[in-house]
Write a sequence for this structure.
């Protein structure tokens, strides 16, 4: 049975989420703020975390940062804040998905299933890919460019791995969104823009090499040795 940690300082919401998730076959842990949630995370290591952003003691963003220092546990953020800036910040800090309150339980459950399915799939990838300026070790979850190690978030690593498996081919927005976030992500193109921008910054570092080429209205193309060559 998959274990889910629900974090929110509103008891009505945690009761509703607990009941719905339990009826769907999940074991549910509950915390009223980020500090309590982090303690439960360390003790119980849930398979997925659903967290609010605005909480006392320790916010949802603080919790996300703390978890990401230790694990790649999927994190779904729930928030009344529906601005692109807030979504960008949450995703940059390591959240895997973002759902605005009020939300429908069927949609949340679909996103939960998508995240758990992604993390439960066996890793059948090649242990190491050496292509152009890149060395990517899928098993160790490490990557380097031009001999320098790069520190990527889980989603950034997944994206780079997708690109490395399809060099110089156009990968459409829909294909990338579905591969990284599952079916629920197809209607969230801003997620992909944030992820691409973050990955570009880390692998290009402001230098002359341009590895990710935008194909307007279609998708992106990866040049492992740089588009300028």
């Amino acid at each position: 049975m998959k274990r889910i940690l629900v974090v929110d300082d509103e008891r009505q919401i945690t009761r509703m989420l607990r009941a719905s998730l339990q009826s769907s076959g999940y074991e549910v842990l509950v915390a009223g703020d980020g500090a309590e949630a982090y303690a439960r995370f360390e003790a119980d290591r849930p398979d997925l975390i659903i967290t609010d952003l605005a909480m006392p003691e320790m916010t949802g963003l603080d919790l996300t940062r703390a978890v990401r220092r230790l694990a790649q546990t999927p994190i779904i953020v729930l928030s009344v804040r529906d601005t692109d800036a807030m979504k960008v910040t949450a995703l940059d800090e390591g959240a895997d998905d973002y759902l605005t309150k009020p939300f429908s339980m069927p949609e949340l459950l679909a996103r939960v299933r998508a995240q758990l399915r992604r993390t439960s799939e066996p890793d059948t990838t090649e242990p190491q890919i050496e292509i152009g300026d890149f060395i990517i070790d899928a098993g160790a979850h490490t990557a380097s460019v031009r001999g320098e190690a790069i520190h990527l978030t889980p989603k950034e690593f997944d994206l780079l791995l997708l690109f490395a498996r399809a060099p110089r081919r156009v990968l459409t927005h829909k294909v990338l969104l579905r591969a990284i976030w599952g079916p629920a992500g197809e209607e969230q193109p801003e997620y992909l823009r944030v992820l691409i921008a973050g990955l570009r910054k880390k692998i290009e570092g402001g230098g002359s090499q341009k590895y990710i080429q935008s194909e307007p209205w279609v998708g992106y193309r990866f040049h492992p040795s740089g588009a300028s060559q």
